[in-house]
From TrEMBL:
Protein name, as recorded: Phosphoserine phosphatase
Reactions the enzyme catalyzes: O-phospho-L-serine + H2O = L-serine + phosphate; O-phospho-D-serine + H2O = D-serine + phosphate
UniProt GO cellular component terms: cytoplasm
Native source organism of the sequence: Erithacus rubecula
GO biological process entries: L-serine biosynthetic process
Family the UniProt entry places it in: Belongs to the HAD-like hydrolase superfamily. SerB family.
GO molecular-function terms, A-Z: L-phosphoserine phosphatase activity; magnesium ion binding
E.C. no: 3.1.3.3
Pathway the protein takes part in: Amino-acid biosynthesis; L-serine biosynthesis; L-serine from 3-phospho-D-glycerate: step 3/3
Record-linked PANTHER family: PHOSPHOSERINE PHOSPHATASE (PTHR43344)
Keyword annotations: Amino-acid biosynthesis, Hydrolase, Magnesium, Metal-binding, Serine biosynthesis
Active-site feature positions: 20, 22
Transferase found in the keyword field: no
Length: 226
């Protein structure tokens, strides 16, 4: 197992950095915000709490929650325009600095493509670098399910995305940054995991992560040291 010093060196020399989105790059959880917007916030929050207990697979939990929300295309677009996702302080500067260093930045999320692409746009991240779940709609705009073939729809999906990135781009060192257990589980194949607790603290992650931060300034400082 790598020491903290070794993890910091991997981060400073990484050729790709993957960020989780909900409660990491943005301050809120996209699915909870969508549920509130569609009037089923409490019921979905309860379902999320049960899912966090680990007794249900990620896909089963996602299916159940979306089955309750049943968001239309119009509702998703209205959520983005009326309540746009709030960027976490420091993320804009960190992504900009990584880009300046020639590091590829990816958003790897169990959230929804349309919301994550909106976030990517604000951070100058190409939409090709977004891996997230795709909602499906009938031609009249009504909810028609989600694309179950996306790796992010499955437990262990973030690790599959990193494996795919390494194979496609031949990255030597890939870093994963996030607040949740699914982010931590992506290393390996990721080379370094950085736990983030700036918006919400998941005790399991805080206790097990070798490197745990609460503000993105901590990572900016690491980059300035080189």
């Amino acid at each position: 197992m790598a020491s903290l010093m070794e993890l910091k060196e991997i981060f400073r020399s990484a050729d790709a950095v993957c960020f989780d989105v909900d409660s990491t790059v943005i301050r809120e959880e996209g699915i909870d915000e969508l549920a509130k917007f569609c009037g089923v916030g409490d019921a979905v929050a309860e379902m999320t709490r049960r899912a966090m207990g680990g007794t249900v697979t990620f896909k089963a939990a996602l299916t159940a929650r979306l089955g309750l929300i049943r968001p239309s295309y119009e509702q998703v677009q209205k959520l983005i325009s009326d309540n746009p996702p709030q960027l976490t302080p420091g993320i804009r500067e960190l992504v900009s600095r990584l880009h300046q260093r020639g590091v590829q930045v990816f958003l790897v999320s169990g959230g929804f493509q349309s919301i994550v692409e909106h976030v990517a746009l604000q951070l100058n991240i190409p939409t090709a670098n977004v891996f997230a779940n795709r909602l499906k709609f009938y031609f009249n705009g009504e909810y028609a399910g989600f694309d179950e073939t996306q790796p992010t729809a499955e437990s262990g999906g973030k690790g599959k995305v990193i494996t795919h990135l390494k194979e496609q781009f031949h990255f030597k060192k890939v870093v994963m940054i996030g607040d949740g257990a699914t982010d931590m589980e992506a290393c390996p194949p990721g080379d370094c995991f950085i736990g983030f607790g700036g918006n919400v603290v998941r005790n399991q992650v805080k206790e097990k992560a070798k490197w745990y931060i609460t503000h993105f300034d901590e990572l900016l400082k690491e980059l300035e040291e080189r």
